[in-house]
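Annex B. Sample input.
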Amino acid sequence: MIEGSIEAVARGKDIASATAESLTRVVEEVRTAAATVDKIADAAEEQAGAVEQVTVGVDQISDVVQTNSATSEESAAASAELSHQAEIMKDLVAKFKLRAEYANVQSNIGYSANTSVPEPMEVMDIDLGKY
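Annex B, continued. Sample output.
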C-alpha cells in the first residue's frame, strides 16, 4: 500500500508539474496578447490623431475654396462694372475733338489760320453719371 501511495504521489507530482507548465505558458500567452492589444490601442490612437489632422486640412481647403469662389464672383461683378464704365467713357470721349484734328478740319473746309479755335468744353462730374 505504501508503494501504491508513493506511485500515486509521483503521478500527482507529474500532473502538478505539467499543470504548472501549462499555466506558465498560458500566462506568457496572456502577456503577449496584452502587449499586442496595447500596440493596437496605440496605433488606433495615432490613426485617430491623423484622421483629425486630415479633417482639419479638409476644412481649411473648404474654407479656401469658398473664399476663392466669393472672390471670383466679386471679380466677375467688378469686371462687368468696369466694362460698362469703359463703354460710357468711350461714348463720352467720342464726343470730344482734339485741337489738331479740329485745325485739320478747319483747313480742309477753308477756314483761315486767323480763325480762333473754340475753347475746350468743361465737363462736370454730374455730366458723366456713375463712374
